[in-house]
UniProtKB/TrEMBL annotation, chain A:
Signal peptide: none annotated. Residues 71-283 form the ABC transmembrane type-1 domain. The keyword Transmembrane helix applies. GO terms for biological process: transmembrane transport. One of its GO terms (cellular component) is plasma membrane. It comes from the Bacteria. It is found in: Cell membrane. Pfam families: BPD_transp_1. This is ABC transporter permease subunit. Keywords: Cell membrane, Membrane, Transmembrane, Transmembrane helix, Transport. PROSITE patterns: ABC_TM1. The chain crosses the membrane at residues 12-35, 71-96, 108-128, 156-181, 202-224, 262-286. It is a multi-pass membrane protein.
From TrEMBL, chain B:
The keyword Transport applies. InterPro entries: AAA+_ATPase, ABC_transporter-like_ATP-bd, ABC_transporter-like_CS, ABC_transpr_MalK-like, ABC_transpr_MalK/UgpC-like, Mo/tungstate-bd_C_term_dom, NA-bd_OB-fold, OB_MalK-like. It comes from Roseospira navarrensis. Belongs to the ABC transporter superfamily. This is ATP-binding cassette domain-containing protein. GO terms for molecular function: ABC-type transporter activity; ATP binding; ATP hydrolysis activity.
Length: 304, 363
């Protein structure tokens, strides 16, 4: 074999272990799941014994009111948490992007919630939401208000888990927004001050537009992540009362373990995967477009 | 146009004293250049004037109005930054009109003003582009245009040409000099380049180590520098400094050192009378040297051995040595100079400057 050929092969040899791990650890389970979604499969059967039913599981799901409600809950939950977390997170970043004594301590405090294990967050909030001994109702009682059935009322439960999620994940937006803010061109902001922009006008006309690429990616990341939330809600409400907080990932786990419908659960997972894949592709394409536009512009400028 | 006055303005960053208290006074409609080596506090001075940096103590006056606590937007200033500081997400027209749009100036008026300035700077065809799509020189023009559209009373420039290549810098320098004549504005211009300072400034303020060394016209600074620093900083090639001893040589005051002895003009005797000792520094500009005629008296000539000869067209710069000193000589390119040879030179006594060795002040 020619030396040049060996040289050309070298990178692939280095890539091989990673590729092998990816095939075994990622593609195999996904393929398995896709195959399973075409089966009528009970956990007591081996996979070979299950009946092949084609697309029946997918069709069943589309006609299943409970699944549709669960999808609706997921979409509502995700839409609300992402919007609220973006607003609060970016707002906080804009507020705390300054050099005041003690600001770095404050910043560190703000990102603590993100570092707590989800199960712990769930337990913590369940305790705080406790109808009689929880801090919220205790406080309400002290102030002379009626207690609120945080987790036991189907009207309140979704709001309650949304609040907990906002508490946990706003810091994520906050640190990314802060990083974006601090990498803005400093002199452009100074130029804006000289041009007469007030603090608010600097935010609206300079800071936010320049942060936009980072914010779009951040929002998409958060959106993808919020579709997959499980533990916190599992611990707090386990999907109840009724189906009011039964987000998709919870429904999938219940379909598999309680209803013992592995095929159906797999089909549901694939629907979720499809949504996430779409979002990821959007993000990827957006990044590519921004990047290639920047590159084209740079090239043009250099030629000029 | 307001008259700008710094009144014992001082600037510290935390504990670090960057600018000890100083006074400055800019005349109405004057083009003032702050010049000095990098890190001497020029930008800080300009930024305090702009309101981007707080004054630690003292006051800045626009006529009889104290402005050191005002926001930048309330100072009626426009500024051109070294890195241009354009708004990357706005096209050129939007960049230039930003301030006017914030002031809610009617659109027709904005368009007219932008068009007029764009034409003046020759950037009409760029108005629809983004800053990232321009070359360095074009960006520089846009930054200038953005300031001009503002029609502020005072223009501040922080090294606006230093990111351009040499040729473009020369061209922009000329254009700026023209612009200075057509615009009746206060201009304060910061640069580390003494050539820019000399060609542009009505008044030049030389700074070093946070201290104002001297201010005056280009001619003042060149002909009567206050101290050794200014003498060395202004003028190119730079002035030669020789350690010398003042000796009374038969009624003539002379500055002597290893290998040289210059007769000084009679007026120097009086000026050096207050010195505590005879040790001084003699400053001689490279252009003050001339080839010694054959009949030059031995006492007035200096023999220099030529190390390098730099041919620049009309002029030739000789790098020569005299004992331990390295001496630059600038001559018309008539004669030919051989490396390694030693030649005799004479110096016009009137052009020799004498500096106090301790205070470095010119005598
Ligand atoms: N924000 C700052 N914090 C601390 N020191 C600073 C700051 N800005 C400037 N300095 C210091 O002040 C001095 C003068 O800086 P500057 O005015 O930028 O100099 P110049 O523009 O003449 O090169 C330098 O020693 C610099 O390190
Ligand atoms: Mg500077």
């Amino acid at each position: 074999m020619a030396a040049a050929q060996i040289k050309r092969m070298t990178p692939y040899m280095f890539l091989a272990p990673a590729a092998a791990i990816m095939i075994v650890g990622l593609l195999y389970p996904i393929g398995y799941m896709v195959y399973a979604s075409f089966l009528d499969w009970n956990p007591s059967q081996r996979i070979g014994e299950a009946d092949f039913v084609g697309l029946r599981n997918y069709v069943t799901l589309l006609n299943d009111a409970a699944f549709r409600e669960s999808a609706g809950v997921t979409l509502t939950f995700s839409a609300i948490v992402v919007v609220v977390e973006m607003v609060i997170g970016v707002g906080l970043a804009l507020l705390l992007d300054r050099n005041i004594r003690g600001i770095s301590v404050l910043r560190t405090l703000f990102i603590l919630p993100m570092m707590i294990a989800p199960i712990v967050v769930g337990l913590m909030w369940r305790y705080m939401y406790h109808p009689s001994v929880g801090i919220f109702n205790q406080t309400l009682k002290e102030w002379g208000f009626e207690p609120i059935p945080w987790l036991s009322d189907s009207g309140w439960a979704l709001t309650s888990i949304i609040i907990a999620d906002i508490w946990q994940w706003t810091p994520f937006i906050f640190i990314l927004a802060l990083a974006a803010l601090q990498s803005l061109p400093r002199t452009s902001l100074e130029a804006a001050r000289i041009d007469g922009a007030s603090g608010w006008q600097q935010i609206v006309y300079i800071k936010l537009p320049l942060m936009m690429p980072v914010l779009v990616v951040t929002a998409l990341l958060r959106l993808i992540d919020s579709f997959k939330v499980l533990e916190v809600i599992l611990v707090m409400t386990n999907g109840g009362p009724g189906l009011s907080t039964e987000i998709l990932s919870l429904r999938i786990s219940r379909t598999a373990s309680e209803f013992r419908e592995l095929g159906l659960a797999a089909a549901m997972s694939n629907y979720l995967l499809l949504i996430l894949l779409t979002l990821t592709v959007i993000m990827f394409v957006y990044n590519k477009v921004v990047e290639s536009r920047a590159q084209a512009i740079r090239q043009q400028a250099e030629e000029a | 146009m307001p008259r700008i006055r710094f009144d014992s303005v001082e600037k510290r960053f935390g504990q670090t004293m960057v600018l000890p208290p100083f006074d400055l006074d800019f005349d109405d409609g004057e083009f003032t250049v702050l010049v000095g080596p990098s890190g001497c506090g020029k930008s800080t001075t300009l930024r305090m004037l702009a309101g981007l940096e707080e004054v630690t103590s003292g006051e800045i006056w626009f006529d009889d109005r104290p402005i050191s606590r005002l926001e930048p937007k309330d100072r009626d200033i426009a500024m051109v930054f070294q890195d241009y500081a354009l708004y990357p997400h706005m096209n050129i027209a939007k960049n230039m009109s930003f301030a006017l749009r914030l002031q809610k100036v009617p659109k027709a008026e904005i368009d007219a003003k932008v068009a007029k300035v764009a034409e003046m700077l020759g950037i009409e065809q760029l108005l629809g582009r983004k800053p990232g799509e321009l070359s360095g020189g074009q960006r520089q023009r846009v930054a200038m245009g953005r300031a001009l559209v503002r029609d502020a009373s005072t223009f501040l420039f922080d090294e606006p040409l230093s990111n351009l290549d040499a040729k473009l810098r020369g061209k922009m320098r000329t254009e700026l000099a023209e612009m200075r004549n057509t615009l009746d504005k206060n201009m304060v211009y910061v640069t580390h380049d003494q050539v820019e300072a000399m060609t542009l400034g009505d008044r030049i303020v030389v700074m070093a180590n946070g201290l104002v060394q001297q201010q005056g016209s280009a001619e003042d600074l060149f002909k009567t520098p206050a101290n050794k620093f200014v003498a060395g900083f202004i003028g190119s090639p730079t002035m030669n400094f020789l350690d010398a001893t003042l000796v009374d040589d038969g009624g003539t005051l002379t500055a002597q050192g290893p290998g040289f002895s210059f007769a000084l003009p009679p007026s120097m005797r009086e000026r050096t009378a207050g010195l505590s000792g005879p040790e001084v520094i003699a400053g001689i500009r490279p252009a003050s040297f001339a080839l010694a005629p054959d009949d030059a008296p031995a006492g007035s000539r200096i023999d220099l051995s030529i190390k390098v000869s730099e041919y620049l067209g009309t002029q030739t710069i000789l790098v020569t040595t005299c004992g331990d000193h390295e001496i630059l000589v600038e001559l018309d390119s008539g004669a030919r100079f051989q490396r390694g040879t030693t030649m005799g030179f004479v110096v016009d006594p009137e052009t020799i400057m004498i500096f106090d060795k301790k205070t470095e002040l010119r005598l």
